Amino acid sequence: xxxxxxxxxxxxxxxLALVYAVTSDPIRKASEQALAESIGRVLPEGLELxxxxxxxxxxxxxxxxxxxxxxxxxxxSEIGFGGPLVLMVGVLPDGTxxxxxxxxxxxxxxxxxxxxxxxxxxxxxxxxxxxxxLKVKKDGGDVDAITASTITSRAYAKAVxxxxxxxxxxxxxxxxxxxxxKNE
Length: 184
Hints:
Radius of gyration: 20 Å
Strand content: 15-25%
Shape: globular
Order of helices and strands: HEEEEEEHH
Distance between the termini: 78 Å
Number of strands: 6
């Protein structure tokens, strides 16, 4: 009986290892492609994109034109109703949100999941001014929440605010020159 159980466990482990070996590369490639498409959606066209960078726990990419940062694509996350909500946020050097894109979420289908499909919710982020407050209107901000999904909307706004703050920090430390060189 012990040998039979050990054999079944070995067989199942071998099958799992085989499935992992076969699927890990396609999953990685699909993830990289989704990330690249997301970055393309949140940055203005015609910018030269840097390699991935990490600073203060934030993953970001710099879009430059003639060596000067024209926009940043920042990966930001916040806990929503169903778990982590991961966004790619395009931010211009002045703090204006150029656009946003949902990379992943675990929100309730038909409610919070609309954060990636509801055009009126997504559209309000395009060109979101740094003069506006990045909170839902219910909390005194300028963001229209998704109906019946205030927690998801709050998480989305917090993730965008994190990205904008990260860009402000980057801008103040680099002086808007690619590679961290100060303007002179």
